[in-house]
Structures are given as structure tokens and as C-alpha cells.
Design a protein that fits this description.
Order of helices and strands: HHEHEHEHEEH
Radius of gyration: 29 Å
Number of strands: 5
Distance between the termini: 36 Å
Number of helices: 6
CATH topology of the largest domain: Pyruvate Kinase, Chain: A, domain 1
CATH architecture of the largest domain: 3-Layer(aba) Sandwich
Shape: elongated
CATH superfamily of the largest domain: ATP synthase, F1 complex, gamma subunit
Number of domains: 2
Largest sheet: 5 strands, mixed
CATH class of the largest domain: Alpha Beta
Length: 292
């Protein structure tokens, strides 16, 4: 049975851990806000790009573009975006559980994040590339991942490219999501008609604009940029999910530490009270024996 000295030592140790988790919670909260702000700042650009792509689809035969061609899936490439560090609750566990559902015989992997790299190595799956990114990567840094995927698809080495990442829903909810990157389908180029109008009312969202030199030439340039931007947004989403999950995990750890300290303090006080009561009884017994 633990004595009061052991309990004091445990209280001190837990208090130190609680201070550490509290600091990590504050850092994660700050990083989460920055990641959310970056993701929100890109929405106007994304909306305008979608309008241009919808217009280009309607002015060209988009089915002839190699990035839009649907083939029989004999080999699939999956990009897994995980975290480099742990202490993020069940975020990586849920993500890698989804990665385990892919058929190893027909799937190759590209990873970004140390946790995904360790999983692929541990399960002996086919790893084609590992991209190391900073905590707040720039658009130029993430383009390398999209370029690698486009090259593999255009060369015919893979017939489908998917991205597995943690989708940020809110601060306490993150969900592993698999999105098809290639081939691009018309449904993945969302239309943006004016408010209150239907697509039939406004078939071309860029009426009055001319694309030079030709709509086909502009489409050839826009589709790779679309893919680059999609990968960039998914990485930002994964970063926001990581920092949110870590903030919640560290908050729970801090709260648990406080409750643990409270319980140990109560136990410590009970032991001290019992010790004092025992001493008083011994003194009283001795005094009665002497007096008798």
C-alpha cells in the first residue's frame, strides 16, 4: 500500500505532466487557427477556378483530355496524408484503418507523414514515394505530390489515383475520407450558378469571356492546376484535423491530470487523517495506562 510520500511524488509527477499537456494544447490551438485561416483564404480562388472549368467543359469535348479518361482499374495509386507526430488521439488509427482496406496486390502508395510511412513499411505494402512536408506547407511544395500522381496516371502505370486524408469537420470531429483525384469526372468540377438560378438558366458561368488561344489550350493548362490545388487543399484540411485532434487530446489529458490530482489529494488527506487519528489513540491509550 502506498504511503504519503509515494502519493506526494505521484501528485508532483502528474502535475508536471499536466503542465506539459496544457502547453501542447495551447500550441495546437494556435496552429489549428492558422490552418483554418489559410484554408478559408483560398475559397474565393477555388470558386472562381471551378466556374472557369465548368465553362471550359461546355465549350470543349472534355472527354478527349487524358486526365478525364476513365479506364478499367487494374492498378490504383493511393496518396495517404498522415501526421509526423503522435499525441493526436485516434486520428491516425482511424486513417490507417481505412488504408488497410485497400488490396495490397492492386494498390501502390504515396505517403506524406511519418505515421503513414511506418504503417506501409510495417505491413509490407508497395511504397512508390515519400514526400516530407513542413507543418505549414506552401502551394509550391505540395505541387510535387500532384505532379508525381499525374505522371504515373498519364504513363499508364496506374489507372486510378485516390487520396486518403483526415477531413476537418469541426474542432472535435475529423473523418478519414477517400477522394478520387484521377481521372477527373465532371461531377468533381462543381458548378456555381448565380443565386436563385438553375444550371439551365445559366449554362455557361463565364458568358461574355473569351478563352485564348483556344478553350482546349486553356483546359490543358487549367486541369493540372486544378489537381495541384485539390492536393494542396486536402493537405491543409489534414493539417487542421491534426491540430484539432491534438488540441482535444491534450485538453482531455490535462483534465484527466487535474481529476487524478484531485483524487490523489483526497486519498493523501485520508491517509494523513488516519495517521493522526492513530497517533491520538496511541497517546490516549498510553496516558490511560500511566494514569491507571
Amino acid at each position: 500500500m502506498a504511503n504519503t510520500k509515494d502519493i506526494r511524488r505521484r501528485i508532483k509527477s502528474i502535475r508536471n505532466i499536466g503542465q506539459l499537456t496544457k502547453a501542447m494544447q495551447m500550441v495546437a490551438a494556435s496552429k489549428m487557427r492558422k490552418a483554418q485561416n489559410v484554408a478559408l483564404a483560398g475559397r474565393p480562388y477555388s470558386k472562381l477556378m471551378n466556374r472557369v472549368l465548368v465553362s471550359l467543359q461546355q465549350r470543349t469535348d472534355s472527354k478527349l483530355h487524358p486526365l478525364l479518361q476513365v479506364r478499367e482499374v487494374k492498378k490504383e495509386l493511393v496518396v495517404v496524408i498522415s501526421t509526423d507526430k503522435g499525441l493526436a488521439g485516434a486520428l491516425n488509427t482511424n486513417l490507417l484503418r481505412e488504408a488497410a482496406n485497400f488490396d495490397p496486390a492492386k494498390t501502390s502508395f504515396v505517403v506524406s507523414g511519418r505515421k503513414a510511412r511506418q504503417f506501409i513499411a510495417r505491413t509490407r505494402r508497395d511504397l512508390l514515394a515519400d514526400f516530407e512536408l513542413k507543418d505549414a506547407p506552401s502551394f509550391a511544395e505540395t505541387k510535387a505530390i500532384a505532379r508525381f500522381c499525374i505522371e504515373k496516371f498519364l504513363n499508364g502505370e496506374v489507372d486510378k489515383v485516390s487520396v486518403l486524408y483526415s477531413h476537418f469537420i469541426n474542432t472535435v470531429t475529423q473523418k478519414p475520407v477517400v477522394r478520387t483525384l484521377l481521372p477527373i469526372s465532371s461531377f468533381e468540377l462543381p458548378q456555381a450558378p448565380t443565386e436563385g438560378a438553375t444550371p439551365q438558366d445559366s449554362p455557361d458561368p463565364m458568358i461574355g469571356y473569351l478563352f485564348e488561344p483556344t478553350p482546349e489550350g486553356v483546359l490543358d493548362v487549367m486541369l493540372p492546376y486544378y489537381l495541384h490545388y485539390q492536393v494542396f487543399q486536402m493537405i491543409l484540411d489534414a493539417r487542421a484535423s491534426e491540430h484539432s485532434a491534438r488540441m482535444v487530446a491534450m485538453k482531455n489529458a490535462t483534465d484527466n491530470a487535474k481529476q487524478f490530482i484531485k483524487d490523489l489529494t483526497l486519498e493523501y488527506n485520508k491517509m494523513r487523517q488516519a495517521s493522526i487519528t492513530t497517533e491520538l489513540l496511541e497517546i490516549s491509550t498510553a496516558q490511560m495506562a500511566i494514569g491507571g
